[in-house]
Structures are given as C-alpha cells and as structure tokens.
C-alpha cells in the first residue's frame, strides 16, 4: 500500500513556503519604511500620488507572500493528518504477511487507508487551488446573491427562518404544528452559499420520509475545508448557536419530537451542544470524526444514535480510546445505538436504509 502524499515531504514544503512568506513580508515592510523616511519631509500632489502608487505596488508584490503563508498552513495541517495515516499503516506492516492476506478485516482496513489517503490528497490540492477559502474565515466566500425571493422560487414550500450572506436556516414542513422536527447540522463548507441547495434538498427529502418537519440548519461559521476542520473553535461557537435554535423550536412547538442530525463536522457541533444540555429527544451522529464524551439531552426519553458507512474513511479517525474530536461515537462502550449503513461519507442522507431508520425514529 502506497500513499500519494508523505508527511515528511509535506512538512518540508510547509517550512519552505513559510520561509518564503516571512522573507517577502519582511522585505515589503523594509521598503515601506524606507519610502516613508524618504518622503516624510515632502508634500504636494505629485509626492502624494507617487506614495499611493508605491503602496499599491507593494501590496500587489506582497500578495504572493500572503498566498505562500496560506499554502504553508494547508501543507502543515495536511502533514499532520497524513502522519496519522502513516502511523496506522506502520501498525499493519508489523503483522505477518499471511495474516494480512487472509484477513477480511485487515483487507478492509487497508482499503480504508487507501481511500483516506486519496481523499486527503484531493482535499489538499483543492485547498491550495482555492486559497481564499482558508486565508481567513467565512469572509473568503463570495457574498451570497441568494435572496429570499430566489430561494422561494427554487423551494416554494420552504419556510425561511434565517438568511444572510453566510448563514441560512430553512424549514420544510410546518414546525409549529408537526409531530416531529429533524434539524440537519451540516459540516465542512456549509457556510459557502454555493453548497446550500444540497442541504435544502436533503432537508426536504427528510421531511418527506419522516412525515414531519425538517430544518437545514446552516447557522454557524463552518470550516472552509477538511484541513481547517481540525480546529475545534468553529464547533464551540456553533454549539451555542445550535442550543439556542433548538430551544426556540421547543418553545414554538412543545409537543413535537425533536431530532438533531449532525453529519461529519456537524456531529462535532451537535456533540458540543449536547455536552451541557441540548433540547433534543434524539441525537444522531452520522460519519463523525469524534464528539464530546458527555451527552445530555433535555428530554424525558433521550436517545443517542451513531451511524457509520461501511466505506466511510472517517471511521479511521477514531478508536474506543480516542478520536480526532473527543470520543468515537461508533466505538464499543460509547452510549449510543449503532446503525451500520452501506456506502461512504456522503451516502447517509441518500441511503434508503438510513432514511427508513430515520423515519422510524421520528415516529417512535
């Protein structure tokens, strides 16, 4: 088994880009200081115009160095993840070859590692290509041109609960009178308006299969890409926002059964929200990279469920001892009902089996 990437080379490349960025930024600062000292005693429209032109030139000259700094961050975070894959590979290499050859479980583990390596490679390449998505926070996304009128045109049966440049909360079904409300907490890239329609279609489908209401909750500032999803800060901030939203649903419809479905990084958000009490009767983690070890639901009959796809490489990010973001909710000993789902990381909400179980849970 060979990985496309190598953590050592990634770290070396990150150091090289970081050094290039630092030297360029330092040179730009020195040039600006030299110019300021040279013209500080001069005045007039010609000198002011020249000074403005120089500043514009310096800013353009500094752009590649700022980009290099962002690339260094991408490579460094990717190196960390790649090192974890290599560590798992090293454990497999310690086993006798015959044992590996004849074991279905070990064969599946090798397949997982290979798929995870390919996914990491593709994500790293995409992140470097789309640097604006990593340099800063959600302001890197193009402002949303989606208006309420346009949303209603595409989704005439939707109820818009919140809509701004980087956040959207859209309900399908009548949240005031329905018997169940499923809140879909999306993950990485969900602050990008170009991805919203996928979440809207998913929520609409969930509403149809459950017979209740479903909400596409895109109400927090999500990580822009997979390397950025190592950070816990977006989940911590989003957790409080999710808690507030679920509380508002409970007040609006006290008799409805509330389900919270966190997918991928969205499960991290939902888990952190539940650590200190979340208004939900059922909490479902799907394709989770780890959640808070303490889960507290404000419900008379709380239920926690964890779903993992049979080909989802996210399963490699956790064991019964640890996970990328806390505890692995699919590991033995975690207090959750386990759902085995066929397919990969993006197959949950399209899986007939998952949707059937979700509908049964909503009506339970």
TrEMBL record:
Q: Which Pfam families match?
A: Abhydrolase_8 (PF06259)
Top-rank taxon of the source lineage equals Bacteria
Which intervals hold domain DUF1023?
167-293
Coiled-coil zones? none
Instruction: Name the InterPro entries on file.
Output: AB_hydrolase_fold, DUF1023
Official protein name in the record: DUF1023 domain-containing protein
Give the source species. Answer: Corynebacterium pseudotuberculosis 258
Its taxonomic placement starts with: Bacteria, Bacillati, Actinomycetota, Actinomycetes, Mycobacteriales
